[in-house]
Design brief:
signal; disordered C terminus; Asl1_glyco_hydro_catalytic; ASL1; binds 2-acetamido-2-deoxy-beta-D-glucopyranose; two-stranded parallel ribbon; Glyco-hydro-cc domain-containing protein; 34% helix; alpha/beta; GH; 331 residues
Length: 331
């Protein structure tokens, strides 16, 4: 192999300078489905490469980052901003080149975007469907996990009468049992026969039962994330949430950041930098399977390069890949 890392970097440098200044480095792959629900404190989540994208429930792309930004049309209240000629969705597309856009937030919830399926279909046809002409994929309105959610999506598709092209189903889930989460995703997948994005989920009891402890959450995150990483049809997911403990409006133990904005143990677990601290998890949420992780002892990290050689060979591969991608974009 005569092309060394240095040579490759020498080729790459002028190529990158002549490439599109706004093109984004991150691509979402089967090992980087994880995203961030929120737009701040993002850099530290990038150290393992497991996180590749983020969204902010709107058009505001937050702090500067090379993570892929996914805009969302939250609901009726955002239509004026969405259609603004200078700061609306077209300006965001020009600046951030999103590959996907998300539809409305929890449409069947009165306290959220609160849309009838017909209103949802009308909004979709007016503000979302036309964007597909630019090659952008569209995610369904994301229902909450109340039983009305699946029916809302079915009624929405009926109201669309073939006029809404949904490229993937987005959904939210809040509960305490990982087995139920997996069943829920399987049901949506088999019902709609589309890829799934889980754009919010957390260990949160909305049914008057006990709230999850930190070990319960670590276990539920581990089991649900492992399931989604292993399913081709789960394209992306974002835990709720990428907030500081004091800013989270549900069980604060679901936060991935301390009040100083640093990754806590759950945040480190989410990106694969720390083993889950499940010791003492209660039966809640563990399901009946035998695949329960055995606590936080002995947690080596799978898959991270362990010495300088593997770093430089992986950097060389990365450099080759960047040259190829850059040439492809140029010509
Ligand atoms: C965005 O641009 C397209 C043309 O590419 C145009 O048809 C559409 O009306 C614009 N949408 C908004 C909301 O400005
Ligand atoms: C789940 O936990 C096990 C045991 O610590 C670990 O090997 C595995 O990588 C974890 N999976 C995820 C997706 O965090
Ligand atoms: C989790 O769900 C599974 C499947 O319904 C059930 O067998 C198990 O008892 C549940 N665990 C708890 C603690 O509710």
């Amino acid at each position: 192999m005569t092309l060394t890392l240095t040579t490759c970097l020498l080729f790459l440098f002028p190529l990158l300078i002549s490439a599109h200044p706004t093109s984004r480095a991150t691509t979402v792959t089967s090992t980087s489905k994880a995203g961030l629900a929120g737009g701040g404190d993002m850099a530290q989540f990038q150290k393992t490469g497991k996180v590749s994208w983020y969204y902010t429930w709107g058009l505001s792309s937050g702090e500067d980052t090379d993570l892929e930004f996914v805009p969302m049309l939250w609901g009726q209240k955002d239509v004026a901003g969405w259609t603004d000629p200078n700061n609306g969705i077209n300006a965001t597309i020009a600046a951030r080149k999103p590959t996907a856009i998300l539809g409305m937030n929890e449409p069947q919830e009165k306290g959220q975007s609160n849309l009838t399926p017909q209103q949802g279909a009308d909004m979709w046809k007016t503000y979302l469907e036309p964007l597909r002409a630019q090659g952008i994929r569209l995610g369904s309105p994301a229902p909450s996990s109340a039983p009305s959610g699946k029916t809302w999506i079915q009624d929405f598709l009926t109201a669309c009468a073939g006029g809404c092209t949904v490229d993937f189903i987005a959904l939210h889930w809040y509960d305490v049992n990982a087995t139920h989460f997996i069943n829920y995703l399987n049901d949506f997948h088999s019902t709609f026969n589309l890829p799934i994005w889980v754009t919010e989920w957390a260990c949160q009891n909305f049914n008057n039962g006990p709230q999850c402890t930190a070990p319960d959450i670590a276990l539920l995150l581990n089991q649900t994330q492992a399931f989604m990483d292993s399913q081709d049809w789960v394209e992306r997911y974002a835990w709720y949430g990428t907030m500081r403990v004091g800013d989270l409006n549900i069980n604060s133990l679901d936060a991935m950041l301390t009040n100083d904005g640093k990754l806590n143990d759950l945040g480190e677990q989410y990106i694969g930098a720390e083993a889950p601290k499940t010791s003492g998890a209660s039966p809640i949420g563990t399901g009946t399977g035998g695949a329960r992780p055995t606590g936080s002892g002995g947690g080596g990290l799978p898959g991270l390069p362990g010495n300088a050689d593997s770093y430089s060979s992986s950097w060389l591969k990365t450099c080759f890949a960047l040259v190829a991608v850059t040439l492809f974009q140029l010509f």
